Amino acid sequence: MARKIVVTSGKGGVGKTTVAAYLSATLARKGKRVILCDADFGLNNIDVATGVESLVTYDVVDAIEGRCRAKQALVRHPRFPNLYVLTSSHSAPERYISPQSLKLVLESLSPTFDFIFIDCPAGIDEGFHRAVASADEAIVVTTAQVSALRDADKTITLLKSYQFSSVSLVVNKARGDLLVAGESMSPKEISELLKTPLLGVVPEEYSIYDGAFETIHPAFKPMANNLLTGKRKLYDVTKKYTGVLGGVRRFLKRSL
């Protein structure tokens, strides 16, 4: 049976979808059979983020309403054969989808997969609860911004009522230059503040958000390994900003 993991954030714009997509692709590259499900029925952009929008024939609503079988709604990624994308509704985003109906579709697919990642919409309204109700574990994505931390804290509090087997944290868009200078909260400090264990740290780098999906940043490899092994090895976002050359990089980063 697949591990069903919701990826959520509370606040929009922190890179939740990016983390869900690249983590899914990394595990697929490791040989795990992975579904990446878009549970954001309003913005629904997982297909665009993964570059499979032209391959979509059916979506999860088609599976829920019986126009296709659940497996027919899966889009196999051409570059990652073990990664399957399940898109949300494009034809009728305003249509009500119950938490139970989404959960039934994912549970029907679970026996033949290792992981199902559920990309949760931002906020803590109905869409949040629909996505969360289908999962057994949760990953909360945040940045070091005060507003993001506040929303992450609210989200973690809400997740406690679901009694997940695990809730972990990913600190995204971490500024290595600011961390070296002591001008930003460290991922460890954020983890302690939110009382949630760190799963991974992702640097703020242009290539992650605007590059080709097939190019996976090294930060996602230890994150995937942590999910598989239970270890907590983190990518060092400060390494390139230490030493003489690192000082030059810090200067250039600040001047941008």
Question: How does this structure look, described?
Answer:
This protein is of the alpha/beta class. The chain has a single domain (3-255), classed as Rossmann fold (3-Layer(aba) Sandwich). The chain contains 11 helices and 8 strands. It has helices spanning 16-29, 46-49, 60-64, 99-109, 126-132, 146-159, 176-180, 187-194, 206-210, 220-229, 243-255, and strands at residues 3-8, 34-38, 74-76, 83-86, 115-119, 137-142, 166-174, 198-203. A hairpin with a 6-residue loop joins β3 (74-76) and β4 (83-86). α1 (16-29) crosses α10 (220-229). The longest helix has 14 residues, at 16-29. The model has no long low-confidence stretch (mean pLDDT 90).
Summarize the structure.
Helices cover 38% and strands 17% of the residues. The protein is globular and about 55 Å long. The protein is built from eleven helices and eight strands.
Keywords:
256 residues; alpha/beta; Rossmann fold; 8-stranded mixed beta sheet; 11 helices; 38% helix; globular
Q: What is the secondary structure topology, with strand pairs?
A:
Blueprint: E1 3-8, H1 16-29, E2 34-38, H2 46-49, H3 60-64, E3 74-76, E4 83-86, H4 99-109, E5 115-119, H5 126-132, E6 137-142, H6 146-159, E7 166-174, H7 176-180, H8 187-194, E8 198-203, H9 206-210, H10 220-229, H11 243-255
Parallel strand pairs: 1-5, 1-6, 2-4, 2-5, 6-7, 7-8
Antiparallel strand pairs: 3-4
Q: Give the total of domains.
A: 1
Approximate shape: globular
CATH topology: Rossmann fold
Instruction: Classify the secondary structure makeup into a structural class.
Output: alpha/beta
Q: What is the percent of helical residues? A: 25-40%
Q: Beta-strand level of the residues, as a percent range?
A: 15-25%
CATH homologous superfamily title: P-loop containing nucleotide triphosphate hydrolases
So what's the CATH class?
Answer: Alpha Beta
Which regions have little confidence, pLDDT < 50, spanning 5+ residues?
none
Instruction: Report Rg.
Output: 18 Å
